[in-house]
UniProtKB/TrEMBL annotation:
Annotated segments matching region Disordered: 1-22
Assigned GO CC terms: mRNA cleavage factor complex
Clp1 P-loop domain mapped to chain residues: 136-324
Segments forming domain Clp1 N-terminal: 25-114
Protein name stated in the entry: Protein CLP1 homolog
MF terms (GO), sorted A to Z: ATP binding; polynucleotide 5'-hydroxyl-kinase activity
Cited SUPFAM superfamilies: P-loop containing nucleoside triphosphate hydrolases
Amino acid sequence: MAYTGAMGAPLQPPTTSLSSIRQVKLDKESELRIEVGTETSLKLRLLNGTAEIFGTEIPTEIWISFPPGYKFAVFTWNGATIEMDGTTETDYTADETPMISYVNVHAVLEGRRNCAKASSAKDPDSSQGPRVIVVGQSDSGKSTLSKMILSWAAKRGWKPTFVDLDIGQGAITIPGCISASPIEMPIDPVEGIPLDMALIFYFGHATPSLNTELYKVLVKELAQTIERQFAGNAESRAAGMVINTMGWIEGPGYELLLNAINTFNADVILVIGHDKTCSRLKDVLKTKPNVDVVKLQKSGGVVSRNHKVRQKARNCRIREYFYGLSNELSPYSNVANFSDFFVYKIGGGPAAPRSALPIGAEPTADPKRAVLVNINRDLLHSVLAVSFAKEPDQIISSNVAGFIYITDIDMQRKKITYLAPSQGELPSKYLIAGTLTWLET
Ligand SMILES: Nc1ncnc2c1ncn2[C@@H]1O[C@H](COP(=O)(O)OP(=O)(O)OP(=O)(O)O)[C@@H](O)[C@H]1O
């Protein structure tokens, strides 16, 4: 059967695919929730009105490209028309969102930053802006809320510090890291956070249970470094920080959460949609009158990701580090001798010599000890961090310059082939290995 339209012009057969160019009109305080199709990217632009993606306003008339699988929402405070070109897995509009409560939090934080700015820099307490920590189960929208309140603050001219303690996904850099970065501009919804000012410590695993002691040590190192930066920079101090945490909030995960709250001296705890954790935290922190525990509603748009999707997201993040979001980066493949590097793993080796232990006691592995490992094919496909340490005993307390990816180990010629973001010698010969691997596809 042939299709003909007005004036007898042929029409395309009807299709069930959502791949055509189409417009969506959004009423005020509503959002368009989108999951980009898994195969191709989606282009989107704002035709009229105003709209933002996770706290960052989008420009009018400019097409923005979103990679396959990307999940996001375009929210409007006052109404907007959006145009999309490409395939989506799903897209729908929602007028019930927790955005008003989120922006109210932003307003309170803004007030505290202003008070901090107006105080004498000599008073370390009153000149300190809010230290916010965002808590919730996996897929409760913690990273999204963190980015939103950071972007709203940056839009008002503040330069708050983003602290990412979520080693599972990595909102600043690759997974397996504890990191921080000042946010000087609203966060680009696609490109994310520039790495040039990031302070990164490498934990080396995507789950904290593999070495909780090391996790705590790195949290402390990062907190102390930020504390020193705040001491010399009144502007950053007044802007405060927003800390994104892991979704592990039960058992040892809860202990790590309390440890993070105390280590960073957090004074605003935002709990997304988890009554039990909220009341537990209120109870345990009631002796600290300056700490506010605030429960916030989870957005109905937050997408749950199963283990496989999370693993895929981790791989994408590592790929993005080396190749960029749309293959715009060209990493270098380098070959080095085994003797050019010292590869350390943290955790292992005896905690104390047997002679120092009571009779009959067995030495246990020290989770905070950097142990030199032999280079062998076990390291194939590992992601190693390049430490800034000058000496081996500084490895655990040093941040890292970046990462390399081991693509070949030649045991006979004693050569390593690795991918690095740039050409030439690495900034250090001390490398840190964990369990983080990547299979380049
Ligand atoms: N309103 C929304 N509409 C559509 N997608 C959303 C919305 N809010 C968040 N998302 C998406 O849902 C996913 C999960 O959100 P997010 O990463 O913020 O959760 P999380 O609690 O930080 O998860 P995790 O603990 O696993 O890191 C992300 O892909 C995010 O882009």
